């Protein structure tokens, strides 16, 4: 059983129609699809979002929301999540294909890895910070990163040799689909609405 934390603090700089998380798809904000999908998952105990001050009230309409005072990307949000919860599965609010199967794969893959600080999907040498499980044991490393300007989770993990477990995306095509995110209006237009709406 795990808490899912949705990152909802981005500035949507590449999305020219306002806040992409609140952009309606078939009349429902994109973030609501993400919330509704993961709220049905049997291994999820709680769903919360982490948001910037500018849109915290809007996101809070749909899910309990914590404020991100850092605004330094996923690193700051993971820090807030782990100060609040001992373990958190971090996902993006702009990942409309997320579903219970993907969350179950991550949790199953990570369940017997008690000595690792995080469990992350990986493409070749790239570690994916989203759809990743983080544990409170990583807090000291994140504090070091914030204090020393190492704001990339991937770089921080490599510099400090943080013990993590990886999941190859190439062996699990469904994870690649779930990691698909929306950055532009065109991404919305090409979304497979049947998959999102079911």
CATH class: Alpha Beta
Shape field: globular
| pLDDT < 50 stretches | none
Order of helices and strands: EEEHEHEHEHEEEHHEHHH
* Helix/sheet category: alpha/beta
User: CATH superfamily, called what?
Assistant: Spore Coat Polysaccharide Biosynthesis Protein SpsA, Chain A
Mean pLDDT: 87
Gross CATH architecture: Alpha-Beta Complex
Domain MobA-like NTP transferase: 4-145
Protein name: Molybdenum cofactor guanylyltransferase
Organism: Ignisphaera aggregans
Pfam family, one: NTP_transf_3
Q: Which labels suit this protein?
A:
molybdenum cofactor biosynthesis; Nucleotide-diphossugar_trans; 8-stranded mixed β-sheet; 35% helix; alpha/beta; 198 residues; MobA-like_NTP_Trfase; Molybde_CF_guanTrfase; Spore Coat Polysaccharide Biosynthesis Protein SpsA, Chain A; two-stranded antiparallel ribbon
Brief overview, please?
The protein is α/β, with parallel strands linked by helices.
Task: Describe this protein's structure.
The mean pLDDT is 87. Helix 3 crosses helix 5. The longest helix is centred in the middle third of the chain and has 11 residues. By secondary structure, the protein is an alpha/beta fold. The chain is globular and about 45 Å long. The protein has a single domain, classed as Spore Coat Polysaccharide Biosynthesis Protein SpsA, Chain A. Strands 1, 4, 5, 6, 7, 8, 9 and 10 form an eight-stranded mixed beta sheet that branches.
Explain the layout of strands and helices:
Blueprint: E1 2-8, E2 24-25, E3 28-29, H1 30-39, E4 44-51, H2 56-60, E5 65-67, H3 74-84, E6 87-92, H4 100-110, E7 118-123, E8 126-127, E9 132-135, H5 139-147, H6 153-160, E10 164-168, H7 173-178, H8 185-189, H9 193-197
Parallel strand pairs: 1-4, 1-6, 4-5, 7-10
Antiparallel strand pairs: 2-3, 6-9, 7-8, 7-9
Domain MobA-like NTP transferase: 4-145
GO molecular function: GTP binding; metal ion binding; nucleotidyltransferase activity
Organism: Ignisphaera aggregans
């Amino acid at each position: 059983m795990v808490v899912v934390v949705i990152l909802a603090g981005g500035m949507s700089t590449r999305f020219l129609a306002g806040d992409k998380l609140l952009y309606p798809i078939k009349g429902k904000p994109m973030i609501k699809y993400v919330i509704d999908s993961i709220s049905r998952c049997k291994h999820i105990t709680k769903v919360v979002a982490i948001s910037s001050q500018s849109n915290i009230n809007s996101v809070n309409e749909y899910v309990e929301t914590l404020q991100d005072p850092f605004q330094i990307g996923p690193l700051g949000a993971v820090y807030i999540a782990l100060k609040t919860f001992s373990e958190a599965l971090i996902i993006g609010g702009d990942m409309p294909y997320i579903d219970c199967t993907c969350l179950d794969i991550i949790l199953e893959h990570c369940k017997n890895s008690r000595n690792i600080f995080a469990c992350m999907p990986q493409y070749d040498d790239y570690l994916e910070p989203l759809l990743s499980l983080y544990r409170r044991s990583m807090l000291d490393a994140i504090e070091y990163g914030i204090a020393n300007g190492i704001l990339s989770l991937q770089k921080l993990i490599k510099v400090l040799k943080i013990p993590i477990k990886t999941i190859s995306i190439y062996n699990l095509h469904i994870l690649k689909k779930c990691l698909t995110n929306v950055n532009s209006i065109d991404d919305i237009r090409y979304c497979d609405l049947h998959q999102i709406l079911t």
